[in-house]
Every structure is written in C-alpha cells, then in structure tokens.
Amino acid sequence: MSKNAGFEGIARAAGAAATAAVAEASGEQLELLSLAPPSRLAAGNRRDALQAQMVEAARVRGRGRPPGAQNVATQQAKAWLVRMFGDPMIESARWLLHTPASLAAELDCTLLEAFDRQQRIREALMGFIHAKVAPVGEDGRPLPMFQLIMGGAEGLDGGTVAPWLNDPEVARTLELEDERNQGVSVDAGDQSQTSQSQT
User: Fold this and answer.
1) Is residue 138 one of the residues assigned to a domain?
2) Cα 46 vs. chain centroid, distance in angstroms?
3) Residue 108 lies in a domain
4) Is there a domain that residue 101 lies in?
5) Are 101 and 118 in contact (CB under 8 A)?
6) Which domain holds residue 119?
7) In this structure, which of 63, 126, 146, 169 has its CB flanked by the most CB atoms within 10 Å?
C-alpha cells in the first residue's frame, strides 16, 4: 500500500464522518428554529418596504439637487417674505377690490391713472388663470414660428452700409480679422504642426 493511498483513505473516512454528523445534527437544528422569535424582516412584516428603503438609501445620487428640489435658502427666504409682507400675488389682487374711482381717491391720482394701474395688475395676474394662446391660422391650426436673422454689415433698411465700412483700409482690416478668427483651410500638401511633432 502506497503512502498516498493511506492519506486518501483517511480523507474519505473523515469526509464520510463529517457528512454523517451533519445529517444527524440537521434534525436537531431544525427543531431549534421553531423556538426562535419571528424575524422582523419575515415575509409580510415590512420586509419589502425596508428593503426598498435600504436600496434607495444606498443608491448613489448624481451631482446637485434632484430634479424639482428647491434650494433650502430660497425656500426659507420665500417663507419669510410671505410671513412678513404676505403673498405678493394676493396683495396685488387686493387692489382690484377697489373701483377705479375709489382707487383714484385712495392714491390721490386721476381716474385714468387708477384704471391703468388696475389694468396692469390684471395683466400680471392673468397668466395664473388663462394661458397664452398660440397664434392660429384661418383653419384653426397653430402657425409655425418664423424668425428672420440678418447678419453681417448690411442694415435692416435694404442693404445700406455704415459709412466707415466704405473706407478700403477698414474693409481690408475687417477681412484680415475675419481670416484670423475663422479656421482657414490647409492645403492637402501642408501638414499641421501637431502632425509634424508627432512623427
């Protein structure tokens, strides 16, 4: 009998003894399980809610405030302003309780000035009640937006040029400046400095 066969036999015997001990003890362990109090995370006992809460707490948040969150300092400033002076929208709306005549007497102004002030308040508050309507065509469909942007030295009055741009020296200086600011194309035979330095 070789030396390795003896060690293999010992290892097999030890493994069989360990398997038998585990099988024998498993019944005893299961009996003890019934004596243990139920876990606070057992199914139906807040387990899912706590697990979701732990996952949410562990989730790494990106930089900055989450979308929709307001700056704490801004929130506190708003609360203080409303506490001290009232809501500006409501305070403005209270002036509309006057008639133009009573507002004119209160402010010691003309009737027309009082009406204009009330009308400005109405216009400022109207956006909170009625949305602005997009322009529509004859068929009732919204019209596309058209915007014309004119660049360069031409004026909006049909192409007249500023008098100082008629001077040839100024025109040449502007051309040179445009060339310097614009990316000037390089011929195919030329190489850039970066490509030369890398070779």
Assistant:
1) no
2) 33
3) yes
4) yes
5) no
6) 85-126
7) 126
